[in-house]
Amino acid sequence: MELSSAEKSTGYLADIMENNINKVFVSILIVVIGLFIPACEENVSPPASMRLNLAVNVVDTTGFYYEHFGSDLVDSADVYINSISYYTNNDTISDSLGAAQFIQILPDRYNISASKRVKVNLNNKYFDYILNGQVQDVSIFQDNTITLYVYPSLPGQLLFSEIYYNGSPPQAPYNIPQYFHDQFTEIYNNSDEVIYLDSIIISDVDYGHAEEDFVYAIHAYMFPGSGQDYPLNPGEFVVVAQDAIDHTTAVPSSIDLSGADFEYYVGPPDVDNPDIPNMIKLHHKYGVDFLYSVFNDAIVMLKVKDPYALGYSQFDCLLLPFSSVIDGVDYRDNLSEIEYKRLPSSIDAGLTGGFESYQNKSIQRKIDFYKGDRIILMDNNNSSIDFQVMDRPTPGYIIGE
Amino acid sequence: MLSVNAQSPIRLYDPMPYHAGIFLQAVIDQSTANPSWNFIDDSVTSVKYSFQTLSTNGNFRRAMDPNGISDNYWTASGSKYLGEKSLFYGSFSYRLKNDKDKMWAQNRQPYTSLPFILADSSTGDWELNGLMWNVDISRELIRDKLYSGLSIFYNVDERYQDIFPRPRANHRDMFVNTGIGYIKDEKSRIGTMVKYYNIQESLTTSKYSLDQEKTPIFYKFRGLDTPLIFRGETSEERLYSIEGASLMIDGLVKHFDLADIDFSVNYGISHADNVDGGAYPIKQGKWRDQYGSYSLTLLFALGNTNCLKLFSNGFTRNLDAEHPDLHLDIYSEKEKIFNGGVTLDMGRQHGWMLSPTAEFLSRSFKRVDTFNGILDYFPGRLGRFYLKMDIPDRGFTDFNLGVGFDKYRVGDDKVYIPRNVGFFYQNVTMTDESYYSSDYSAFRISEQLSFGKKRRYLLVLDYLRIMPDSDMFNYREQLQLSLIVEDMMRKSR
Fold first, then answer.
1. Residue B214's closest chain A neighbor by CA?
2. Are residues A133 and A169 in the same domain?
3. How many structural domains compose chain B?
4. Which one of B8, B164, B209, B210 would you mutate to disrupt binding with A, by most A Cβ within 10 Å of its Cβ?
5. Are the C-beta atoms of residues B379 and B364 closer than 8 Å to each other?
6. Residue B1 within a domain
7. Sign of the dihedral through C-alpha A147, A153, A155, A159
8. Which residues of chain B make contact with A252, given a CB cutoff of 8 A?
9. Which residues does chain B have within 8 Å of residue A8's beta carbon, measured at their own beta carbons?
10. pLDDT band at A125 (very low <50, low <70, confident <90, very high)
């Protein structure tokens, strides 16, 4: 009988398997072993890490803390570390020995600051003191312990509560490409007492002199008054406009500054609202307006007896003493460029901003706490901590976080 | 791991698809084969026109993979004998690719062992237009004994994102293969190929128009967490270049009475550099990659009509990346893939062929970010069954149809993270970990139809659908369609 094709095939297979069973088996075995040996799973353990530990010892060597609390080691202080490259922030509280422990932080350059608010009794009167200390740009690339010295001070009495330097984007109907005339500065009385603005100077600061004793003022304008003409009550604001007009007519997303309290007026062709008192021009190096840079700048507020006593720098900046500065804020579009700061850490240990120009954004000081109905704004002399970025400017009022 | 064509790891991890992101089958075939064999393998000269489209969509993907991909190639190619001893092959392709909803990364292949990525805060569509050329020359040095070959592939393309801040990417990729092949006798041959490749990606975000009313945030990723963040920057530039070489030895042995052994062994190294900026470039990290692979196929003839095929492939690679400032290794990857299986070709005597395949694949993938202290380890195993029915050429029409089913199971995976993780880990790395640790099932179907004598028309269709066992993901599917018109010409030799 003749076999069918399928039967023939089966017969072939049987013959082959019989005759070559060893070769086939060995081949299959090689393939299978080759497959399974590397398939064995690996035992893994927690990885090595470059993360490291940092201890910050908070110490007051001025004798203030020892006098009132019996130790130089400042316990319960808020300690902050800000990574310069990665924008990571960590905070913790110092223990009873003044030590704050940061575990598994990234190796980087850090700004480190500590702050503690204490109430002390002086002559049967209680005062709120702040112990502040900062160090900048500390390279932490291995486990480390650093000592951070803090110094007592009374909280700021007169503060910049908001600085709007950003400018407005181009919008219909005029599509003005770079509209910066809506800049303003807002000042707040953070104290319990009336403060007189008379003769207080607002200035922007030239770059490159943070280590010197003087503010190199590019522009300097002073509040008018003879001593007690412009009082500012506790919890009140004052707004100083570059041009005190309604800017929404030029750029709809801008703001109405026609109700500002003061106005910078350079002289023709600068805009002058006759209903708003003008600041007194002390020094104006260039420009048709007192323009804060929309990219990076530092603004200070200070008071001196004679603003011209120190004269001028080689490049036509008015010299004013840093020691007279009441408050100052350093801002920049790129916050990693800490090396370009314009103010010493004693005035502003941080840097705020971090946004592109002409976006209607603003920097506003954070609310620290409420004293009754009154807002007390945060003042650690560190704008990285004290300020927040607002999507819209808020002239004459504060919006909390 | 996602491939519509169930290809061997050697092909998937070839620098052309892996680093340059080029998935045109014809040029990958050329790139992964010893060009000296073209002389004897290309038995007829032809002119060929083809269109290949690869469409991918579905949310079973890593965080920075596009949500949808449409990758299209129009190719004209031809080969011709130049005299009796040389064969010329050339191809020219135009490519149009669309990536839909690609998150952050500006690099074209952010998941190819690339720990240094330039990104911005936008998620948008990218469009690519490119041109590519392939020229091969193979030559017979000693008649029927010794052959040599040279293959050069060159690609230029431009990608751009259509939304703010409108980054652009220009690519220039070059692959040069040179090989030599020796045929000892009818039963054995051996060849070797050296490959050199140079891949460049230039990323540029020009100063944007202020009427956008938006501010971009640029990220420079350096591992699995804590990128460098740049706010308020109006432009960025990055040049990313990969250079590498590989050596392949391949051969065919027919010395067993009933078995053929087809093998190849491949070893390669790559290194890459990142620099930012124009006139004063700033180093942004570099990495080194070593990879090796083997491919082994044993063919057993079962009588005159049936055939048993055993195959095994293996691939392993090790990568180390160095921090640009600390000059320490901060990131490493290790990956191993081994697969093996058996195919039985039977039924040829009936005028058709049925080929069931059972395959097993084992994979492990480990990445360690020593800067952040993150370790991911994902072992897994895949079982595959594939059934192919082939109706051989009856002079005019060929048709084959295949269906397959995959089941992938993740093994004892491990994730170690530090106490504090940042936004990048939470938004990207964590999603990727979920992807890598998902079991899945996959269904595939492929069809190939060709007809015509002097002019052959070929339609190739491959479809793959992956269904993860995860609440986080739904599916991912790929459809590849190729239309080929080929003019068969008489061998002129």
1. A359
2. no
3. 1
4. B210
5. yes
6. no
7. negative
8. none
9. 303
10. confident
Chain A neighbors of B330, CB-CB under 8 A: 50
Residue of A nearest to B307 (CA): A13
Contact A335 B231 (CB under 8 A): yes
Sign of CA dihedral A127, A71, A90, A160: positive
Angle B383-B24-B34 (CA atoms, 0-180°, nearest 5)?
85
Q: Which two tokens stand for residue B234?
A: 């109006």
Q: Residue B423, by phi and psi: left (phi above 0), alpha (psi -120 to 50) or beta? A: alpha
Separation of first and last alpha carbons in chain B: 42
Domain final residue, candidates A153, A169, A192:
A153
B233 vs A334: CB contact, 8 Å cut-off? yes
Using a CB-CB distance cutoff of 8 angstroms, which residues of chain B are in contact with residue A335? 231
Domain boundary residue among A108, A135, A153? A153
What does the alpha-carbon distance between residue A204 and residue A140 come to, in Å, rounded to a whole number?
A: 33
Please answer whether residues B390 and B425 qualify as being in contact, where contact means their C-beta atoms are separated by less than 8 angstroms. no
Query: What would the two tokens of residue A36 be?
Result: 């399974």
> A37 exposed, middle or buried (CB, 10 Å; 0-12, 13-18, 19+)?
exposed
**Domain-located, residue A397:** no
Domain check: are A165 and A122 in the same one?
Answer: no
Contact yes or no for B340 and A35 at CB 8 A: yes
A42–B364 C-beta distance less than 8 A: yes
ipTM: 0.73
- Mean pLDDT in residue range A59-72: 94
DSSP assignment of B43-96: -S-EEEEEEEEEEEE-S-S-TTS-SEEEEEEEEEEEEEEETTTEEEEEEEEEEE
What's the maximum distance between 2 C-alpha atoms anywhere in chain A? 132
Partner residue opposite B310 with nearest CB, options A31, A48, A107 = A31
Of B226, B258, B312, the CB nearest to A86: B226
Chain B, residues 204-233, CB within 8 A of chain A, namely 210-211, 213, 215-216, 226-233
- How does A214-233 read in b/e, with b if 16+ C-beta sit within 10 Å? bbbbbbbbbbebeeeebebe
Cβ under 8 Å to A: B residues 285-344: 296, 298, 300, 302-306, 308, 310-312, 314, 316, 326, 328, 330, 336, 338-340, 342
Same domain, A112 and A176: no
Chain B hits for A5, CB-CB cut-off 8 Å, are: 349-350
A124 Cβ neighbours under 8 A, 6+ residues apart: none
Instruction: Residue A143: give its domain's CATH number.
Output: 2.60.40.10
Nearest to B123 by CA among B109, B105, B107, B111: B105
Asked if the C-beta of B282 comes within 8 angstroms of chain A's C-beta atoms, the answer is: no
| CATH assignment of the domain containing B414 | 2.40.170
pLDDT lower than 70: segments of chain B: 1-10, 42-45, 207-215, 231-234, 255-258, 278-279, 394-395, 489-493
Same structural domain, A176 and A296: yes
Encoded tokens for A376: 């007390």
Of the partner residues A23, A104, A357, the one whose CB lies closest to the CB of residue B418? A104
Q: How far apart are CA A6 and CA A14, in angstroms?
A: 12
**CB contact at 8 A, A198 and A229:** yes
- Which CA distances in Å does B56 have to A54, B163, B254, B487? 48, 22, 41, 31
**Domain ranges, residue B171:** 9-488
Task: Note whether A36 contacts B302, CB cutoff 8 Å.
Answer: no
Structure confidence by residue, pLDDT tens digits, A318-360: 999 988 999 999 999 877 677 788 998 778 877 899 888 888 9
* Position B493 in a domain: no
- Cα B227–B229–B235 angle (5° rounding)? 125
B411/A41 CB distance under 8 A: yes
pLDDT at A209 over 60: yes
